[in-house]
Structure formats: structure tokens, C-alpha cells
Amino acid sequence: MRQIVKNEEPKSFALYRRNTKLSPTAKYDASMQKDVNKELRESLIKEQGYICCYCMKRILLQDNSSTKTKIEHFKPQSIYNGTNGKADLRLIYSNLFLACKGEEFDDNNKQCNCCDSKKLHQELHFIDLLDESIEKKIKYSSSGAIFSNSATIKDTDSNVITCIDDEINKVLNLNNQSLKKWRKEVYNKILLIIQNAEKRHKCNPTYLERLREEWYGKHEEEGKKMFKPFCMVAVYLIKKYIKKYEAIQNQS
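The structure assignment produced for this chain is given below.
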């Protein structure tokens, strides 16, 4: 999971919002023209580097179709619709993200939804996609698990959401078998690269920083600027090794 830096909203979407009279039951795209919807999705996917806002899986847009992605209202439109004292965020660009379809399957071919398809109308209180600190709070294990060591409030009710880990597992289901497998593959790939560099005696903070930049930044692929799928798994592991080798240098 990485911080998402929002760009300026598409002009067509801004115009649509100004010309749309919302009602408490309106959907963000109930009467949105196809070209406005298309431009909105294109803007969201570009700023996210073609990865899901939650799981970081590769997402792509089909021509004139939205079947590969879902518009995610970070603050649910069922709650933040201008009623009951809540702000109306249904057409606020900073509240919109692009998520994968969230239709994963376990080893028994049983569907287990994740990301927006699992979150539905629930509100996230501990995860903030716009906050730069999210990248420091999220960690990854060699097994492919995603977790956080952030503070938690003790509660005996397993249904109560008290911390980031609860939102990762109970609200977003980001530790399903498929996602763990893909994250583990990236983790092992980076580990092998670093181990090979160590065998050649080329592993040092400078080498590792170049490797980190390669995985943290966008790269050109098929004429698009993309982040690598599950890029923050790699960045997390590389940073651990940077700290290790910086400590070695300081001791010498």
C-alpha cells in the first residue's frame, strides 16, 4: 500500500459536478456521460501508476469499458452524501480512487473478495491513502503477509475494528491466499537480487538506493508510466537492507 498523490481533476468531471443537482439517493455516475466516466478513470489510473489503490495489483482499462476496475469512494457515498450532517463527497475528486475488481480465489477455487469489493459501505478510520505516513505504517513479511505495528485499542469483540491490521484483514481482506502468494513472489525476487549482489560484493547503500528508486518510481511500459505491481513490498525489504548496510558502514 502506498501513498497516492492526487493530480488536478479532469475538466469534464469538474464541469459535470457543477452541472449535476444531487439528491440523497444519487449515485456518482447515475447520469454521467460515458466520455466523462472514461476520462475520470483514465485520470485516476494514471496517478495511481496502473495499480490498485489497496492491494497494488496491476489494473488496466479496457477500451470503452470499466469491467476491469471499480471507482472507489474512500469515504462511502452511502454515508457521505450530504445527509445526517455528513458532507457530500460523492463527486469530490480527492475522495475517488481506482480499485481492482477484488474478485480473488483461494486454493479451493472459492471466491474471496478483497479491496473495494470487500469494503463495500464500510468506512476506513486507520488507513488513509493520501497520508504519506501510510508507507511507514505498512510492513510485509517473507510469507507475503501485509501488516502494521501501529498502536491498537484492546477490544474483546472480534468484530470491532480497532487498528490498521483490523482494516487490512477484516475490511479489505488483503491477506487472502492469492495476494499473499504474489507479494511473496516479489519479496523472494528482491531477496534473490540482493543476495546475488552480496555474493559479488557489490551490495552497499548506494547500490541498494538505486534498486529502491527502480521499484519506487514509475517506469515506461507500453507507452504508459506505471508502478510495478506490489512495488512497496520490494521497497520495504530494500529499505531494511539499506539500514543494515548503513549500520555496517558507521561501525567501520
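Interim note for the steering committee: The chain has one domain: 11-251. The radius of gyration is 20 Å.
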